[in-house]
Specification:
alpha/beta; 8-stranded mixed β-barrel; globular; binds ligand C2E; binds magnesium ion; EAL domain-containing protein
Length: 278
């Protein structure tokens, strides 16, 4: 019995420690916004046919003064739970639009918006404000959402998607195939692009179903008038499969890792010099 109590105490201490760590991270997150510890990196998206860069996805990083680099997979969920995702998301929108407006080629920028942000009545206004402040035309901004937005009120979701379209902004369905994928969503909601999750792309050069899935999603996109982007392309073999399967755009380490805005801009300047737009 005493041993049982000891085990319980151990768990209690563990729980305390975990909650304290979380609480500390939450306080750090609040400070991080004020202290500008966040950085946006930009990863190229290329046209599969020409390998030309047609846009960049903005990906946020947190440089924690003691813990070093913290991945968005770790702090975005916490930011969502604490409501800090709203100011963070606004910062991401403004920074991404401002950087893109200064690029030497008029390619697009994609910004991730979490389900919590999406639910907020402030989102459309925040997008409009970021466009206005930066001077970036709405047609150069893509908003990436995940299937989780579909678990909410669908009438409200549809209204927000339409208002974003009204600003000229395009909407991409991110990580397609991993969540609560339903083909009826693709029919009912006005997405402009499907991003095929990297879990399928990863297995493209192996034997198996991945190829059939990628090819089917690309075909589906084509017939629904949506573009398709393969995420996480790392090898030449995967790239060649994608091209054969009719996928239109690709993103992954094969073409470039997420990089600081300055490097993204230099890459575009280089592209313009060696391969002028048609
Ligand atoms: P995501 O939107 O699906 O972004 C793609 C992720 O795949 C990025 O991870 C990117 O660095 C990674 N990636 C790209 N190419 C490759 C590749 O060839 N191989 C591999 N193994 N990985 C690749 P990252 O930057 O760690 O972001 C993770 C997730 O965090 C994102 O997934 C997105 O859901 C979320 N996130 C990132 N930035 C933001 C943001 O500003 N706001 C919100 N709400 N979420 C964000
Ligand atoms: Mg994304
Ligand atoms: Mg994705
Ligand atoms: Mg993802």
């Amino acid at each position: 019995k005493s041993e049982g109590r000891g085990t319980w105490r151990f768990f209690e201490r563990e729980m305390d420690a975990q909650m304290q760590a979380r609480r500390r991270l939450e306080l750090d997150l609040r400070r991080a916004l004020a202290e500008q510890e966040f950085q946006l990196l930009f990863q190229p998206l290329v046209h599969v046919g020409s390998r030309r860069i047609i846009g960049f996805e903005a990906l946020v990083r947190w440089h924690h003064p003691e813990r070093g680099l913290i991945s968005p997979a770790e702090f975005i969920p916490l930011a969502e739970e604490t409501g800090l995702i709203m100011p963070l998301g606004e910062w991401v929108l403004h920074t991404a639009c401002r950087e893109a407006a200064s690029w030497p080629e008029q390619v697009s920028v994609a910004v991730n918006v979490s389900a919590v942000q999406f639910r907020s009545p402030l989102l459309v206004d925040a997008v409009a404000a970021a466009l206005r402040a930066s001077g970036l035309p709405g047609s150069r901004l893509e908003i990436e959402v995940t299937e989780s937005i579909m678990l909410q009120d669908n009438v409200a979701t549809l209204a927000i998607l339409h208002r974003l379209h009204g600003l000229g902004v395009r909407i991409s369905m991110d990580d397609f195939g991993t969540g609560y994928s339903s083909l009826s969503y693709l029919r009912s909601f006005p997405f402009d692009k499907i991003k095929i999750d990297q879990s399928f792309v990863r297995d493209l050069d192996k034997q198996g179903d991945a190829r059939a899935i990628v090819s089917a999603i690309s075909g589906l996109g084509r017939s629904l008038g949506m573009s398709t982007t393969a995420e996480g392309v790392e090898t030449q073999e995967q790239f060649e499969q994608l091209r054969a399967d009719g996928c239109l755009e690709a993103q992954g380490y094969l073409f470039g890792r997420p990089m600081p805005a300055r490097d993204a801009s230099a890459l575009l300047r280089h592209q313009r010099a060696v391969q002028p737009a048609g």
